[in-house]
Amino acid sequence: MQQKPILLTILDILSIIAIGIATYFALFLAPTELVMGEVQRVFYFHVGTGWVALLGFIIASIAGILYLITKNMTWDRFGLAAVEVSAMFFLITIVLGSIWARPAWNTWWTWDVRLTTAAITELIFIAYFMLRAGIEDPEKRARFGAIYTILGGLSAPITFMVIRLFRSIHPVVVGNPSAEAQGGFDMTVDMRNTLFIALIAFTILFVDFIWHRVRLGGLQEKVEQLKLKTLGE
Amino acid sequence: MANKKTINTVTADHRPPSAVVGQPSFIKATLAIIHKDLAAEFRSRELLTAMLTFSVLVILIFNFALDLNIDVRQKVTAGVLWTTFAFAGTLGLNRSMAVEKDRGCMDGLLLAPVDRSAIFFGKAISNLAFMLIVEAIVLPLYAFFYNETRIFKLEFIAVLLLGSIGYISVGTILSAMSVQTRTRELLLPILLFPIVVPVLIASVLASGAIINDMSLPQIMTPLNLLIVYDIIFIAVSFMFFDFIVEE
User: Fold this and answer.
1) How far is B119 from B28, CA to CA, in rounded Å?
2) Does A1 fall in a domain?
3) What is the pLDDT along chain B (247 residues), one digit of tens a residue?
4) So where are chain B's domains?
């Protein structure tokens, strides 16, 4: 039995602390936004989860490329971990965004660029899981999964650009304060700090989750091998 | 003479594989696969009949679902046509790969001493041919049913061609993948549509703008994205086909 690495335990504790601090900052230290009120506080976690979801999506595509080059199963486990964690965070981002959009836009959902792209990306993830579930041979599963994440990673930016041709109402909070009418707002220093802390906290949590999932994938493989061995005897 | 040729191929091993004796050139191999697919299809007519009947049915359903009167048609013609082609396309893609798999023809193709990408291009071009044949029949039918002659513009046809190329290049590679899974036909639309969504949106935007005589930027912006998508995905599909068919 493989021991849990000590560094992973430290990372577990670190991510709990970091998320705790980020929650405290978002709920208590950040000032209440003037127009939108308390619901704006969801923004910090919305951006935090959205950022790591995107990161996971990119990592999955890179892991796919590396798998096809090296044929090393570690990259397959890495890619699967990235997709699983990213899919969950994307879902959280969408739900948090909806909670904010209901009072700010007066609707749960709108076919805006970011929303639509997020929804389509989520569908790519589901298709990825279904594809993997339909293949028994682990080597072929890894190969097809890698190809599909690369195709998805190439197609999602184009989807984003194409949908942008329609009008977008999603606020661009960072670097574009002119979007106030769409629910954008100027960030104060406290807000910026809170956002920064949330981003760091979620990045730590993300690394922790990926590590756990990769490790779990390795253990799963070992169990499978042991099963085959006992059946063979 | 023959002796000299053999010696040449042995010594000049830096030559492309097509120069080796007994191996057909890339273009010849591609053409052979296209010929095989088209000949088989024109004998059985299974695939085209199914795609065409399905397309007409979808248009009929749209007629009642969207109440396609003259005002509605103004806006949704491009959308209705593209939805029809996208759904009919999955039928064709599924069938064209399933035939290869079921009768073990794929193994035969892979054993043939030709470049694997020739197989990809052969399959992709014959899939494209089926799709274009369906489009060539459905467009006049649509014009006939709805008195819509605005779709017979050269620009509209060009968008149709570009959109079909993008759709088929991804579709061919994904159908080669889905046919090897347990769920097979069920999986293709689920794999294909999230990836091919930019093609469908860009095509609908561009062809809608063309039908309604909008300004050039409104046509060119989606069209440029469509061309970018086509180039990227033809290249990627071409690169990945080897990885998909290897056993």
Assistant:
1) 11
2) no
3) 344 444 444 444 454 554 455 667 889 999 999 999 999 899 988 889 999 999 999 999 988 888 878 888 878 889 999 999 999 999 999 998 888 888 788 888 888 888 888 999 999 999 999 999 999 999 999 999 888 888 888 999 999 999 999 999 999 999 999 999 998 889 999 999 999 999 999 999 899 889 888 888 888 888 999 999 999 999 999 999 989 988 6
4) 26-246
- Total domains in the fold of chain A: 1
Please check whether residue A212 lies inside any domain of the structure.
Answer: yes
Chain B positions touching A123 (Cβ under 8 A) are 193-194
User: What's the ipTM?
Assistant: 0.86
Q: A134 and chain B: CB distance < 8 Å anywhere?
A: yes
Domain of A146, CATH number, reads 1.20.120
- With an 8 Å Cβ cutoff, is A163 touching chain B? yes
Q: What whole-number distance in Å separates Cα of residue B74 and Cα of residue B211?
A: 8
**Do residue A127 and residue B190 have CB atoms under 8 angstroms apart?**
yes
Residue A37's SS3 state is: strand
**Is the CB of A159 less than 8 angstroms away from the CB of B183?**
no
Q: Which of B197, B227, B247 to mutate to test the interface with A (most CBs of A within 10 A)?
A: B197
pTM of the predicted model as reported, rounded to 2 decimal places: 0.86
Question: How many interchain CB pairs under 8 A, A with B?
Answer: 86
Whether residue A152 and residue B196 make contact (CB cut-off 8 A), yes or no, is no
Taking contacts as CB-CB distances below 8 angstroms, the residues of chain A near B181 are 131, 134-135, 144
State the burial class of residue A228 (Cβ atoms within 10 Å of its Cβ: 0-12, 13-18, 19+).
exposed
**8 A C-beta contact, residue B82 and residue B142:** no
Long-range CB contacts for residues B99-107, cutoff 8 Å, separation at least 24: B99/B40, B100/B179, B101/B179, B101/B180, B106/B245
Question: Mean of the per-residue pLDDT values for chain A?
Answer: 87
CA distance B44 to chain A (A): 31
Q: Give the domain range for residue A118.
A: 6-31+40-232
Q: What DSSP string describes B137-190?
A: HHHHHHHHHHT-GGG--HHHHHHHHHHHHHHHHHHHHHHHHHTTSSSGGGHHHH
Which of A159, A167, A168 to probe by mutation at the B interface, max B CB count within 10 Å? A159
**Which of B41, B207, B233, B70 is CA-nearest to residue B139?**
B207
d(CA A11, CA A21): 15
Residue found by looking up tokens 């994440």 in the block: A149
Query: Letter for the amino acid at B61?
Result: I
Tell whether A219 is covered by a domain. Answer: yes
Of B173, B194, B198, the CB nearest to A162: B198
A101 within some domain = yes
Radius of gyration of chain A (CA): 20
